[in-house]
TrEMBL record:
<feature type="binding site">
    <location>
        <position position="72"/>
    </location>
    <ligand>
        <name>Mg(2+)</name>
    </ligand>
</feature>
<dbReference type="InterPro" id="IPR020550">
    <property type="entry name" value="Inositol_monophosphatase_CS"/>
</dbReference>
<dbReference type="GO" id="GO:0046872">
    <property type="term" value="F:metal ion binding"/>
</dbReference>
<dbReference type="GO" id="GO:0008441">
    <property type="term" value="F:3'(2'),5'-bisphosphate nucleotidase activity"/>
</dbReference>
<dbReference type="GO" id="GO:0016078">
    <property type="term" value="P:tRNA decay"/>
</dbReference>
<feature type="binding site">
    <location>
        <position position="136"/>
    </location>
    <ligand>
        <name>Mg(2+)</name>
    </ligand>
</feature>
<feature type="binding site">
    <location>
        <position position="138"/>
    </location>
    <ligand>
        <name>Mg(2+)</name>
    </ligand>
</feature>
<dbReference type="GO" id="GO:0046854">
    <property type="term" value="P:phosphatidylinositol phosphate biosynthetic process"/>
</dbReference>
<protein>
    <recommendedName>
        <fullName>3'(2'),5'-bisphosphate nucleotidase</fullName>
        <ecNumber>3.1.3.7</ecNumber>
    </recommendedName>
</protein>
<feature type="binding site">
    <location>
        <position position="139"/>
    </location>
    <ligand>
        <name>Mg(2+)</name>
    </ligand>
</feature>
<dbReference type="GO" id="GO:0043647">
    <property type="term" value="P:inositol phosphate metabolic process"/>
</dbReference>
<keyword id="KW-0460">Magnesium</keyword>
<dbReference type="GO" id="GO:0000103">
    <property type="term" value="P:sulfate assimilation"/>
</dbReference>
<keyword id="KW-0378">Hydrolase</keyword>
<keyword id="KW-0479">Metal-binding</keyword>
<dbReference type="InterPro" id="IPR020583">
    <property type="entry name" value="Inositol_monoP_metal-BS"/>
</dbReference>
<comment type="function">
    <text>Converts adenosine 3'-phosphate 5'-phosphosulfate (PAPS) to adenosine 5'-phosphosulfate (APS) and 3'(2')-phosphoadenosine 5'-phosphate (PAP) to AMP.</text>
</comment>
Length: 360
């Protein structure tokens, strides 16, 4: 009898949990009233973020009760804002997977009150020991609000290393070969419905499948890989839409020095990692705008293991591996460079050269 590969159950549950949460976010995406709040760091949060986080944590607690969880949102505001709480609960109680999948996730959350407690189970401080799930229920919330790209992100970190990563990208085309474009979103949805689920387990490669696939069949999806980049001047490089999130002028200078002819493709969320991992784009640059911003682990964990398993390398701008074992943020991180293995070193040299003369 052959035994299941390592992390088979974790992968399966993570895929189903992301798939279910993505159904909720899609319903919210298609409404005009998304229940937006502004957080203390001035970033937006919506009904979709809270609802997706509740559904994912509930699935994780049902299957892996002992594991810690680092998730982006907290329920504090919802304990007094009953309107918003009711709105979120309206989506959460009605969002289900068809067939077997729902059972595997433990079914529905009991009440609006327990939903708040579940959201707050994501308050772990992280660290370098044990099993920790990192959740970004809606990454790219600004893109989500603009009608652009966003991603539902889940990763398992064990002793500081990312072992499993899953990205649900409801607004990316299912087709891996469709090259990335600026701000793909609602305006470009096709009739068969968009959405792709990209996953990876350390040492086992990366896969992709339609986000809408039936959950009954154990569909492992198709294997994906980065495009071999023989001629770097033909590369398509992607970066954030938000100018405050990465240094677009520095990135333009780097691209120019590398001889890259095309303009950057701007896209919100970890859909950038998903896109380069399946060869729809080639390079992702995220250099700091200002010193001091600490990247959150949930913004990168899933994307990093997916890109690695698809044949890429992800480092900071000094060439060091990202360290997911230091808490809720990648302490002291100096930007991110993700590219196919064969060209990563060359890109890094240019990043270092161009950054050297810049005072942030
Ligand atoms: N000043 C900053 N520099 C870098 N990233 C930032 C930032 N302010 C916010 N972010 C992060 O950027 C994420 C979006 O990334 P991108 O620009 O690639 O779409 C946000 O995730 P959320 O949307 O989950 O809040 C947020 O965590
Ligand atoms: Mg995020």
């Amino acid at each position: 009898m052959s035994s299941a590969p390592p992390y088979a159950k974790e992968l399966r549950i993570a895929q189903l949990a992301v798939q279910r949460a993505a159904i909720l976010t899609k319903s919210v995406f298609n409404t005009t009233s998304k229940g937006t709040l502004s957080k203390s760091d001035h970033s937006p949060v919506t009904v979709g973020d809270f609802g997706a986080q509740a559904l994912i944590i509930s699935a994780l607690k049902y299957n892996f009760a002992q594991d810690e969880i680092v998730a982006e949102e907290e329920a504090e505001e919802l304990r007094t804002n009953t309107d918003l709480r009711g709105k979120i609960w309206g989506y959460v109680k009605d969002t289900k997977l068809d067939g077997e999948g729902e059972k595997e996730l433990g079914g529905a959350i009991e009440s609006a009150e327990s939903m708040l407690d579940i959201i707050d189970l994501g308050a772990s401080q992280g660290g370098s020991k044990g099993r920790i799930w990192a959740i970004d229920p809606i990454d790219g919330t600004k893109g989500f609000l603009r009608g652009g790209q966003y991603a539902v992100c889940l990763a398992l970190i064990v002793d500081g290393k990312v072992k499993v990563g899953v990205l649900g990208c409801p607004n990316l085309p299912v087709d891996d070969s469709a090259r990335i474009e600026n701000s793909m979103g609602k305006d470009q949805q096709d009739s068969e419905g968009k959405g792709v689920l990209i996953s990876a387990v350390e040492g086992q490669g990366a896969t992709g499948r339609a986000l809408s696939a039936s959950t009954g069949g154990k569909d492992d999806g198709r294997s994906i890989s980065m495009k071999p980049l023989e001629d770097i001047t033909k590369a398509s490089f992607c970066e954030s839409v938000e100018a405050a999130h990465s240094n677009q002028s520095l990135q333009a200078e780097i691209a120019k020095k590398l001889g890259i002819v095309a303009e950057s493709v701007r896209m919100d969320s970890q859909a950038k990692y998903a896109s380069i991992a399946r060869g729809a784009g080639d390079i992702y640059l995220r250099l700091q705008v200002k010193r001091g911003y600490e990247e959150k682990i949930w913004d990168h964990a899933a994307g990093v293991v997916i890109v690695r398993e698809a044949g890429g390398l992800v480092t900071d701008s000094e060439g060091k591996e990202l360290d997911f074992g230091r808490g809720r943020t990648l302490r002291g991180n100096s930007g991110i460079v993700a590219a196919p293995k064969g060209v990563h070193g060359r890109i890094l040299d240019v990043v270092k050269e161009v950054s050297a003369g810049v005072k942030l």
